[in-house]
């Protein structure tokens, strides 16, 4: 097997692993297992989740938080997967450095992944030590999304090394607008989840009988509240959570409009490849809207909520693909 093929296969494997880490991380967050282990990087001072009978009554971590074995294992499995991803990215960067002339692609993406995944590890630690601070948890989500996107870009540049397309700059601008819009919407989704606001509104199209409850909008988007606050299950009042929820809904409407315009322009200005991607984008967008509606009217079923996170990442990757194929625009 050629080194280029090995490099491609490793990039694909890490891409899949990153998606698994992100989706499983969403599952950990949605099942309130983010503090299943109150310490880091171990769990109650162990590399494996201990049995409660093996912990002494005066254990400092046990005194801080009672052991819930199911939550602890979910948290530790997430850490194991993330650690494997970090090691894999180091291997990818090593191959990119030592065989950069053989693989034939720009190794800069692989290099960028190394400090990024290290920062992701720090965010994972701070998620625990800062007690699920919403800004840290949301940043951790966005860092995972960026990691996923860079690995996907790396995979595309290996697979389509010799592909060159000419697309009008006007379309490239629409792709960038769509990409930024979806990124902001994912931030709002993360902010909604980390502030436990997903169930603040359970009716459509209004919330609590209002079109936009904005009494505590400023409070809802206060990014930093100091240290030492336990954010498990949220600290905001119901009106603030309702404001967050409704901003996320409004963001969903704006995102849908922006992406529909992008799809229309792609159909009229794009080549056959871009047109196919536009159809894929339409299908994924429709699925994402459907999952969002089920979350509201169905009371946030865990499986649907986790799928909503995963499909959001896929939606972003479709836009990354469109950007990749418009990068050589005139």
Topology at a glance:
Blueprint: H1 3-30, H2 60-64, H3 69-98, H4 100-103, H5 108-129, H6 134-159, H7 169-194, H8 217-220, H9 238-269, H10 272-297, H11 302-324
Structural description of this entry:
This protein has 330 residues and is mostly helical. It has two domains: 1-162, no CATH class; 165-330, no CATH class. It is 68% helix and 0% strand. The chain is built from eleven helices and no strands. It has helices at 3-30, 60-64, 69-98, 100-103, 108-129, 134-159, 169-194, 217-220, 238-269, 272-297, 302-324. The protein is flat and about 65 Å long. The mean pLDDT is 92.
Q: What's the rounded overall pLDDT mean?
A: 92
Query: In total, how many domains does the architecture comprise?
Result: 2
Biggest β-sheet strands, sense, barrel? none
- How many helical stretches? 11
Rg computed from alpha carbons, rounded to a whole number of angstroms: 21 Å
How much helix, percentage-wise, in residues? 55-70%
Unreliable runs: none
End-to-end separation in angstroms reads 37 Å
Fraction in beta strands: under 5%
SSE order, as H and E? Answer: HHHHHHHHHHH
Shape: flat
Quantity of strands, as a count: 0
Q: Provide the structure class.
A: mainly alpha
